[in-house]
Amino acid sequence: MKIAAGVEYCGSQYSGWQKQKHSASVQEHVEAALSAVADHPLEVTCAGRTDARVHALNQVIHFESGAVRDDHSWVLGANTHLPEDIGLVWAKSVASDFHARYSATSRTYKYIILNRPARPGIYHRFVTWQCRYLDVDRMSQAALSLVGEHDFTSYRAKSCQAKTPVRNVLNLSVNRENEFVAIVIEANAFLQHMVRNIAGVLMEIGTGKRDIGWEIAVLDAKNREYGGVTAAAAGLYLVEVNYPDKYGICRKPPGKIIGKL
Predict the structure, then answer these.
(1) Is 122 exposed, middle or buried (0-12, 13-18, 19+ CB in 10 A)?
(2) Where does CATH 3.30.70.660 sit in the chain?
(3) How many angstroms separate the CA atoms of 43 and 243, rounded?
(4) What is the DSSP string of 65-116?
(5) Beta 86-94 vs 106-115: how paired, if at all?
(6) Among 51, 70, 97, 135, which one carries the catalytic annotation?
(7) If one looks up domain 2-103 in CATH, what number appears?
């Protein structure tokens, strides 16, 4: 039987989603917990491998098991074995051709910035801090230039191993609520550090360090060296993964992290 599930986690203490030999990962904890419920070793596949210190509200995974468990038992059982900063939110049986990564039609990330002169205290693991005022109108105008299908070579890490740098950004918006600014981006798929590099460019424009249009110049350069600073990981969240209706995985609107954002 193939099972799909949604995982929520705080990535602050982990080297990322993917298993590592010398550091703790979210994947190893999830696999250990589900293996305990199934009473046999199993491996899980995720929709998108998040980096170190990146969070997720609804990371989608799939795994196969011969164990007979109802949906609630997978969730309840796994959560008894998971650390407090990782939780299984839902589980359901799916068709044999479902694949958490390759069946996905889009993914949505949200990047949260605390925009005030004083650094964060309570939120220090969950937001990025920008002390200079961010002009959301300037950032929104620049963001429009990145919507659509483009070669995002300048916006991916030099170590990115994706076969092609072309990605289709479906939506990209910038919103403010009081001292918090949120960048929300939906695309068919993402390159390594792509969201954080886009956030870095938009923040440079938002503070007035760069003019509107620089985002296009960076895009056209097709060279990472022309991009801005990679924004910190702490404010980044994987909030939604979408699939064709035939799999019965209901689309959830991107979750609210702080206030209305």
Answers:
(1) exposed
(2) 106-239
(3) 21
(4) ------HHHHHHHHHHHS-TTEEEEEEEEE-TT--TTTT--EEEEEEEEEES
(5) unpaired
(6) 51
(7) 3.30.70.580
pLDDT at position 108: 96
Question: pLDDT tens across 37-90, in order?
Answer: 999 999 999 999 999 999 999 999 999 999 999 999 999 999 999 999 999 999
Its pTM stands at 0.95
Residue whose structure tokens are 């209901």: 250
Question: Where, residue-wise, is CATH 3.30.70.580 in the chain?
Answer: 2-103
d(C-alpha 78, C-alpha 86), whole Å: 10
Integer Rg of the chain from CA:
19
Catalytic (active site) residue 135: no
CATH code of 106-239, in short, is 3.30.70.660
Question: Which two structure tokens, joined as six digits, stand for 5?
Answer: 């599930």
Q: Tell me, what's the pLDDT at 21? A: 84
CA dist list (Å): 156 to 34, 45, 112, 170, 223: 33, 23, 20, 18, 9
Task: List Cβ neighbours of 158 (8 Å cut-off, separation of 6 or more).
Answer: 224
Query: How many percent of the chain have pLDDT more than 90?
Result: 92
pLDDT at 198 > cutoff 90: yes
